[in-house]
Amino acid sequence: MNGTDGATGFRRQLNWLDATLLVVGTMIGSGIFIVSADIARDVGSSGWLLVVWLLTALMTLLGAACYAELSARLPWAGGQYVYLREAWNPLSAFLYGWTCFLVIQTGSIAAVAVAFAKFLGVLVPSLGIDPDAGAYTFVDWPDFNRYLAIPLPWREEPWIFWQKQRYSITAGHLVAVLVIALLTAINCLGVREGKWVQNVFTVSKVAALVLLIVAGLTVAADVEAIRLNFGALWGGVYETPRFQEVSELVPWRHLAAIMVVLGAMVGALFAADAWNNITFTALEVHEPQRNLPRSLLSGVAFVMVIYLLTNLVYLLALPVRADAELEAYIRTTQQQISRLTAEGRTTEAQALQQELEQRWRQASTFERGLARVLDDRVGTAVLEQVSPRFGVAFMAIAVMISTFGCVNGMTLMGARLYYAMAQDGLFFSVAGRLNRRGVPAAGLLLQGIWASLLVFSGTYSELLDFVIFAVLLFYATTVAGLFIIRRKQSAEPPFRVWGYPVIPAFYILACILIMLDLLVVRPNYTWPGLFIVLTGIPIYYLWRFLGHRGRLRSET
Questions:
Q1: What is residue 552's predicted lDDT score, i.e. its pLDDT?
Q2: pLDDT digits 0-9 by tens, 224-235
Q3: What is the rounded CA–CA span in Å between residue 40 and residue 514?
Q4: Residues 143 and 182 in one domain
Q5: Distance between CA atoms of residues 237 and 52, nearest Å
Q6: Same domain, 342 and 251
Q7: Alpha-carbon gap, residue 300 to 303, rounded angstroms
Q8: Mean pLDDT of 408-434
Q9: What span, in angstroms and rounded, lies between the C-alpha atoms of 142 and 355?
Q10: Bridge-partner residues for 137, per DSSP?
């Protein structure tokens, strides 16, 4: 059963269940417990919140179906990188790998590891991330106030696409790095060790989510919340700050609302992302042409059902919108804080921010609703309704289990991508070698080091916001490559995507529509992402040049 690929040295130690648990465990991180708050602020009603998650589920499942056929046709280490290389060219594949190493994979590892530390801080405040919540602090620069801006000819003021007002390093950052280091070390021992960690933590996190769903459908359900949420399913979107911003650019009211809803999918798509990572491990899966498609489809379908049920629980337990008086106070105060900050009156802005925090935290969980839940911890708020004493602690432990397993899955699978790049001479050659346990240990170490640096940079969350446009771009380009791969390969694989060519074309169109929408609705998330991808072009040609010179020297 545990055979070794004679050509590469990889060991086939992942069966269908292992691969499926990798898909499930990597998709479920901290996002499902948090992002619905941000979506609620944008869409303002229960109907649109469910639409966002339904559209996300549909898109993710269709994308997984297209990748399932690609994995059956090209069961090689590197997965999506290989699909882009074989369908298009090495440059497009490198740009994907470059962006993954620079931000997507490593930034996700950093962000989820920090989420682990953040929820650990709920139980042990000194080991958390927030200095104001009691975290042991090594560096705290409250007046950091740094930003990056680009002058644009059609704007009077420079466009600020990144801004950080405070920089700190706390014990929580060290905890996040320790999590990354520990899981990197475990995965260097072999794929068997990594998969057992994954299996245990995935089963545990699914059990915690099931308990949340059961509690929400029974004990936490609130009659008043149900009346407020389901009595007016659609109207709230016209009253949100995001709608006000978009309506200034889009004169048609209903079109602006639709664009807000599509833009709100950013958080849901991130919470449902990383399902494609399993394709990186093709040479370690038994019968990959059969088991990779099965694991992709079953894993994604299972997670999306869980996500939809979880959001239904949120809507049964809490109103989408905050109490009208609290919401008005928060919006007005935030506008005053922005004005004071822009005028350089930072002391007054900070004092007003403290007042806002105090008023916000004094409100009840029900008054805050989904949109204004504390620290966006929606799952915690629901369990507080069930047990004010134990709900917070239970959810903190559940999220820690979830994030630990998520970091492990991304760590295990990401290094296989860099292995494929190194085999093509487009990454550090050491990343293309396997240790005596049959794993790319050097790639794991490089990935862990860079992810740790991102933890201390404090910019991982901003970077992840920036790359959603790039992620969708690569997904659409990869699925478009399916049309080319089909023409190149006459052999019939064990799995073919249903409804070809309609399903792949529909998925590509959906990605394009969301990308175009983001250009208007969330421009700060799009242009920086494109810039990150484009930085890979000169790096690609430089790497090719240096690699070519190295081969010439070795030949002489």
A1: 38
A2: 888 888 888 887
A3: 18
A4: yes
A5: 12
A6: no
A7: 5
A8: 90
A9: 17
A10: 170
> Backbone phi, then psi, for 75, in 5-degree steps?
-80, 65
> For residue 339, is pLDDT > 60?
yes
Do the beta carbons of residue 120 and residue 399 sit within 8 Å? no
Q: Nearest 5°: phi and psi at 202?
A: -70, -45
How far apart CA 231 and CA 214 sit, in angstroms, is: 23
What is the SS3 assignment for 251?
coil
Residue type, position 25, single letter: G
Distance CA 447, CA 449 (A): 6
What are the tens digits of pLDDT across the range 277-289? 999 988 889 999 9
pLDDT 10s digits, 237-271: 888 888 888 887 777 888 888 888 988 888 898 88
Burial of 506 (0-12, 13-18, 19+ CB in 10 A): middle
Strand 146-150 and strand 159-164: the pairing is antiparallel
Range of the domain at 93: 16-318+374-555
Identify whether residues 230 and 213 lie together within a single domain. yes
Are the beta carbons of 148 and 142 closer than 8 angstroms? no
Q: Do both 123 and 262 map to the same domain?
A: yes
CA distance 50 to 28: 18
Give the DSSP letter string of 295-348: HHHHHHHHHHHHHHHHHHHHHHHS-SSPPHHHHHHHHHHHHHHHHHHHTT-HHH
Instruction: Give the closest residue to 41 by CA, choosing from 272, 264, 274, 244.
Output: 264
Helix or strand (DSSP H, E) at 531: helix 527-534
Confidence of residue 462 (pLDDT cuts 50, 70, 90): low
Instruction: Give the CA radius of gyration of the chain.
Output: 23
Count of the separate structural domains present in the chain: 2
